[in-house]
Amino acid sequence: MRPADACADTLRDSAGSLLLRILPRGPLADDGGLAFTAGACVYLPPGYLRSGLAYPVIYLLHGGGGDQADWMVFGQVPAIMDAAIAADPSAAAIVVAPDGTDAQWYDNIDGSLRNQRYVLDHLIPYVDRHFRTIASRDGRAIDGLSNGGYGALHLAARAPDRFVAAGSMSGNLAGLTFVGLAAGTAPAFARGSLPVELASNLDGIDVTMDIGTVCDADRMVDNCLAYQFEQVFVPANRAFSSRLAAVRAAGDGGLEYREGEGAHAWRWWSPWLRDRHLPFLLARLADPHPADVADPSPTPRADFRYRSVAPSFSVWGYQVDVARDVREFLDLRHVDRDGFEIQGSGRATVRTAGIYRPGAAYRVGGAADAPQVLVADPDGSLRIEVDLGPSHVVEQFTPPANAAEAAGGYWTVRRVTIGEEDA
């Protein structure tokens, strides 16, 4: 069944659920062509047209070789959601299944593919504009299978201020099939796109995971062929779950990680969604509420950390730009009203969230050799230039070519303090 057919309007009456296809605009490649595949299937819960309610949204990502229709057709999302809502009306949610260009849920290094930008910067805003959604972090969750499992955890780690929960089924968490992540061409880019390297970004996000490690029933189905394929992904799932548990402190988010009977097949993914992942996600999402009740404005976490190889990123209301000559991680740690710790090389510009008194003077220490006095702008933000020393000359994770490159240590770490000058 073609995506356009699978997502055609199937509304029978205004009390029934609706399945439709949307075509949001997306990012362009440098040559002007599309850097994404247009289209997403959208499930709207029974009674959506006349309820007047705003609903949480679950984003479901397909696997390699799939498309936007997979979850609706093979994954049986309409039937699963209809049954869950019939049993408990508070389970009502919108489900969005985008096309990921053969499940490559990242921005390619050459800009020819920009699926990360498509989902985060185009699809989500489009959904929030055109449907009655709970347009806040508490109203969004993301999940996926195989490459889509990788994509769900990758996108949640890239944008932890957008999602309250994430999931992965049979996840290809090492990006083993992703040509654009080839370690030989861009090791820092590759590692900067893998969930295991970004686990600390998932603070506050509850995660649910399933991977098949036992073959019993499938012996009578396909002689465990789908199970054997599944085993390729087991080491990366174990590594990620171990890393996530290791980097988290109490209260930083929950993890449900399951190994057991299963295989790389829809006969497992649909029941996992129905019986495990959907209840997990719904328990963490806000319940539907009247659409005229305003969603709370996003506020930064009281204390967060974040790492990225991107030269520019925005998270929790902070905008960070770094001038350097190579790809490598920039790490922010202990970010709160009193300042932050930053690690990297080159020169970073940090525009804080609007958490300070507009027009007030603040004494900033540690960003440079001498303290500075900065004035908060009308939005309550401070713009802080941080000197991280000379830029490195070789990309992170690339072995040094000579002794000179290897000498002299690596990172510059600065603790930047912020205090009101008049206090």
Please, could you describe this protein's structure?
- By secondary structure, the protein is α+β, with helices and mostly antiparallel strands.
- The chain contains eleven helices and 20 strands.
- The strands form four sheets. Strands 1-2-5-4-6-7-8-9 form an eight-stranded mixed sheet, sandwiched between helices. Strands 11-14-15-20-17-18 form a six-stranded antiparallel sheet, with no helix packed on it.
- Strand 7, helix 7 (187-191) and strand 8 form a beta-alpha-beta unit.
What brief labels describe this structure?
423 residues, alpha+beta, eight-stranded mixed β-sheet, six-stranded antiparallel β-sheet, 11 helices, 23% helix, 25% strand
Task: Please specify the SSE layout and strand pairing.
Elements: H1 3-6, E1 18-22, E2 40-44, H2 48-51, E3 53-54, E4 57-61, H3 70-73, H4 77-87, E5 94-98, H5 115-130, E6 140-144, H6 147-158, E7 165-169, H7 187-191, E8 206-214, H8 225-230, H9 234-247, E9 255-261, H10 266-284, E10 289-290, E11 304-308, E12 312-315, E13 318-323, E14 330-336, E15 339-344, E16 347-351, E17 361-365, E18 372-375, E19 383-387, H11 403-406, E20 412-420
Parallel strand pairs: 4-5, 4-6, 6-7, 7-8, 8-9
Antiparallel strand pairs: 1-2, 2-5, 3-10, 11-14, 12-13, 13-16, 14-15, 15-20, 16-19, 17-18, 17-20
